[in-house]
TrEMBL record:
Keyword Glycoprotein part of the UniProt annotation: no
Superkingdom as given in the UniProt entry: Eukaryota
GO molecular function annotations of the record: DNA-binding transcription factor activity, RNA polymerase II-specific; RNA polymerase II cis-regulatory region sequence-specific DNA binding; zinc ion binding
GO CC terms: chromatin; PcG protein complex; transcription regulator complex
A Pfam family hit: zf-C2H2
Protein name: Oocyte zinc finger protein XlCOF19-like
Length: 247
């Protein structure tokens, strides 16, 4: 886990954190660990980060060892079968969790914005967007993030890593969502359609801006004034929005 939060070195400094003469203290609860790797795993009990997901049932775990142990359960007899996709499960609870991928059920609700989540780990991570807590820090520039995945994406700015490559033209991207958006330029697909006028767009952000043409250009900001936006469409690309100006 790549994070700097919660770690206080005692009896010396060092990067590897493997010297038994030093201890690493959790700033949340004060518990001490001889190795930084153990502290990193422990921190997930506070942050709610669950980076390891089972490919069979979608259940998430905060430790790789727990995921490996869980995966073994799928090798046993699986008496519970999904009526939608025929996927089989060992436990009824796993089937019920999986069914949320078909039903869209999100029983874990945020008390601040009422946004729903299918798993409690996802809700716990989302809550940090309201509290402002950012436990994950970039070692290069000290910028902080609320989610580990965001930190990993950010670090590619420094490393220049672009792990996602387009099969059509070879162009590389640092973020998977950028590759998916780029692929639409090859397929011509416009998956985001306006329900008012049936106009379609390649990106959801362009659709959101376009929708203001139907609402009079007004955008209500929570606990703030109403801003008026003038939407100017590019004449060269009639299916995209060229400029949005706040009046």
């Amino acid at each position: 886990m790549e994070t700097q939060v919660g770690s206080h070195l005692k009896q010396g400094e060092g990067e590897d954190g493997q010297d038994s003469s030093r201890t690493h203290k959790c700033s949340y609860c004060g518990k001490e660990f001889p190795f930084k790797s153990k502290l990193d795993r422990h921190l997930r009990t506070h942050t709610g980060e669950c980076p390891y997901q089972c490919g069979e049932c979608g259940k998430q775990f905060n430790q790789l060892a727990n995921l490996k142990k869980h995966v073994e359960t799928h090798k046993e007899k699986k008496p519970y079968s999904c009526g939608e996709c025929s996927k089989q499960f060992r436990r009824l609870g796993h089937l019920r969790l999986h069914m949320r991928t078909h039903t869209g059920e999100k029983p874990y609700k945020c008390e601040h914005c009422n946004r729903g989540f299918s798993q409690s780990c996802a809700l716990k991570a989302h809550l940090r967007t309201h509290t402002g807590e950012k436990p994950y820090m970039c070692e290069t520039c000290c910028k902080r993030f609320s989610e580990l995945s965001s930190l990993k994406k950010h670090k590619r700015i420094h490393t220049g890593e672009k792990p996602y490559s387009c099969d059509e033209c070879g162009k590389q991207f640092s973020v998977l969502s950028n590759l998916k958006s780029h692929m639409l330029t090859h397929t011509g697909e416009r998956p985001y359609r306006c329900e008012k006028c049936n106009k379609s767009f390649r990106q959801s952000s362009l659709l959101k801006v376009h929708m203001r043409t139907h609402t009079g250009g007004n955008l209500l900001m929570s606990d703030g004034p109403i801003y008026t936006w003038k939407v100017i469409e590019c004449q060269q690309m009639p299916h995209s929005v060229g400029l949005v100006v706040k009046i």
